Amino acid sequence: MQKRHFETIAIRTQSKQTDQKEHSVPVFMTSSFTYDSAEHASAVFKGEQKANVYSRYTNPNCEELVQKLCLLEGAESGMVTASGMAAVYTSFAALLNSGDHIISSKRIFGNSTYVLQKFIAERGVEVTFVDGTDLDEWASAFRPNTAMIYIETPSNPTLTTLDMRKIGELCKAHNSIFSVDNCFATPYLQQPVKFGADLVIHSATKYIDGQGRVLGGAILGRSELIVKCSDFLRRTGASLSPFNAWVLSKSLETLAVRMDRHCSNAAAVADYLNKHSEVDYITYPHHPSNPQLDIAQQQMSQGGGLVGCQLQGGASRVMSFFNGLKLHSLTANLGDTRSIATHPATTTHSKMNTEEQLDAGVTPGYLRLSVGLEHIDDILEDIEQSLRQSR
Ligand SMILES: Cc1ncc(COP(=O)(O)O)c(C=O)c1O
After folding, report:
1. Looking at the 3D structure of the chain, how many domains does it have?
2. Rounded to the nearest 10 degrees, how much is the dihedral formed by the CA atoms of 376, 377, 383, 386?
3. Half-sphere exposure of 383 (CA within 13 A, CB side)
4. Fewest CB within 10 A of the end CB: N or C in the chain?
5. Angle between the 376-389 and 255-275 helix axes, to the nearest 10 degrees?
6. What is the mean pLDDT of the chain?
7. Which pTM does this prediction carry?
8. What integer pLDDT is reported at residue 360 of this predicted model?
């Protein structure tokens, strides 16, 4: 049989039908599962027989989501978590020990930077941040105790493209784990495992849900790493609820069609902003202005649903532009059907000091648009009217 396509896998991977013969998978809202006998319970606990025990460990809805995500990402194994940050933190806490060293790109989600600087550093792990686009900086940052490399590509919020193949090669040469947060691209546009990633992290809250309803996360990748992450999660408890797993698995059924539209709408917004006289520069992975365009085109099949730009007039102009938007939502999420405007310097990256912000590309005039699935004419009209009135 020919290998099934992305869309078919996303729709047709589902839990075994129950004897009710349902077409749509039910939600298994149960905290625990029963045993056939006392002997069965004992065998399950000894690991001699496989069965669901308790929803902090496994649940059919979570298992379906894991199986689907592994197939879509081309990953050996996986697990799901209560949120994207639970996935990020679990991957660090389960795999890094006191005395280890981690190198991270500077251009990552503000909260991930905070977790590294505070909680991971406090565990006795040395943390180094590098300019992810500079391969020499990566190469010289490795130490004998470098256990992990962590990147986002495209990154939050500057949409910077990093060369996964080259960074992956460095990780292999130094025997370090290569971990990629693939939240902005989704497996539909980019599969980091193909470029050498050992781990792929997701905030499923974003495009995987796609409708701004539930939180969720995932860690996918090499089995021996996932075993350690699963052990950490099962014992410490940031497991995904069956209901959220059900929502996310259903949402994956439409990921491909949603992403196609997010990408075409975002490309049109990028073109519009790029031509606007009051915009200093735009950031969009597949736009000719991306200094890493070649790499972005090799890694991603389309440019994604997020666009950034620096508006002339700094933070006060961005605030006035945001206050004039009638269609766009001002909210912390992204990857929603609804278009969203975010000012990273005063929200998602506000915990950084000014120097750190500038180092991470977060200037006062920089804004990020999560381009939704409304009609493109309405999206552009809203941006245009608000830019006009905010002069
Ligand atoms: C790139 C990236 N990774 C991880 C997260 C954290 O995800 P969550 O909000 O689901 O915890 C976010 C949230 O914005 C993000 O943008």
Report:
1. 2
2. -150
3. 31
4. N
5. 30
6. 97
7. 0.97
8. 86
